[in-house]
Amino acid sequence: MENEIVMEKVIHKGAEANLVYGHWFGKEVIFKHRIPKGYRIEQIDKMLRTKRTLNEGKALIRVKSYGINVPQVYEIDTKNSTIVMKHIKGQKLKDALKSLTNEQKVNILKNIGKNIAILHKNGHIHGDITTSNIILTNTEEIFIIDFGLHDYSDYIEDKSTDLHLFKRVLISSHGNDFCLCYEAFLEGYRNGYEPENIKECKEIIKNIKTIETRGRYVKKEDRI
Ligand SMILES: Nc1ncnc2c1ncn2[C@@H]1O[C@H](COP(=O)(O)OP(=O)(O)OP(=O)(O)O)[C@@H](O)[C@H]1O
Ligand SMILES: [Mg+2]
């Protein structure tokens, strides 16, 4: 029984991957399996799936080493373009947020901010920070998942863009809690920086406004 790989239940069908719950050598796991896309030339499709599986698996392993709560990766199976990772018991923050107390919301959002600051300080961009890509456990731990759009960058602009996406998600999906959550998130983010690099942190936050101004006043076709 211990030596088995058992895929039990598809829990999510994403744009690129199927997420399957199951067991891997006695452990409860999620298999993130990037599925073939019929519209791509077969060799290119295989190459893309291998590359993206490797990128995401490596990113998860690297960021975990900085102390960020991400699911532990057990195996990167490039042949089947599958990442085998620890199954995190909990709820998507998107679904959990509304039933939390304000105090819980503040603590959780601060914690998320701190984790994103650690990511950014180490040159990692998550690429898709949303409340669907954060799992909240019943002990109020948070896990950041879905590094499918992860990239490496030390540009202020890329870090601000990462934060700006999260801001927009808070507005659109959690409008009633937006101020409370966004303030707590930024506070956690600032606290994740040390005095010697707080200047960069301030620039990143300030640049969110610049991005918003561009979005509103520059015609879409004029944007670069
Ligand atoms: N390690 C995990 N433990 C528990 N649930 C997970 C885990 N990884 C993913 N999930 C669940 O599967 C969902 C989809 O995962 P993920 O966001 O990584 O896939 P995706 O293909 O990028 O999906 P989408 O395209 O919808 O963003 C998550 O929202 C979460 O509910
Ligand atoms: Mg996702």
Distance between the ends = 55 Å
Q: How many domains, as an integer?
A: 2
Poorly predicted runs of 5 or more residues: none
Q: What oligomeric state do these chains adopt?
A: single chain
Order of helices and strands: EEEHEEEHHEEEEHHH
Q: Regarding CATH, which class of the largest domain?
A: Mainly Alpha
**Count of beta strands:** 10
Mean pLDDT: 95
CATH architecture title of the largest domain: Orthogonal Bundle
**Helical fraction:** 40-55%
Shape: globular
CATH superfamily caption of the largest domain: Transferase(Phosphotransferase) domain 1
Question: Which properties best describe this structure?
Answer:
Phosphorylase Kinase, domain 1, binds magnesium ion, 224 residues, 2 domains, 10 strands, Transferase(Phosphotransferase), domain 1, binds adenosine-5'-triphosphate, alpha+beta, three-stranded antiparallel β-sheet, five-stranded antiparallel β-sheet, single chain, 6 helices
3D structure, described in words:
By secondary structure, the protein is an alpha+beta fold. It folds into two domains: 5-86, Phosphorylase Kinase, domain 1 (2-Layer Sandwich), CATH 3.30.200; 91-222, Transferase(Phosphotransferase), domain 1, CATH 1.10.510. 44% of the residues lie in helices and 21% in strands. Strands 1-2-3-5-4 form a five-stranded antiparallel sheet, covered by helices on one side. A three-stranded antiparallel sheet has the order 6-8-9. Helix 4 (156-173) crosses helix 6. The protein is globular, with a radius of gyration of 18 Å. 30% of the residues are buried. The model has no long low-confidence stretch (mean pLDDT 95). The protein binds adenosine-5'-triphosphate and magnesium ion.
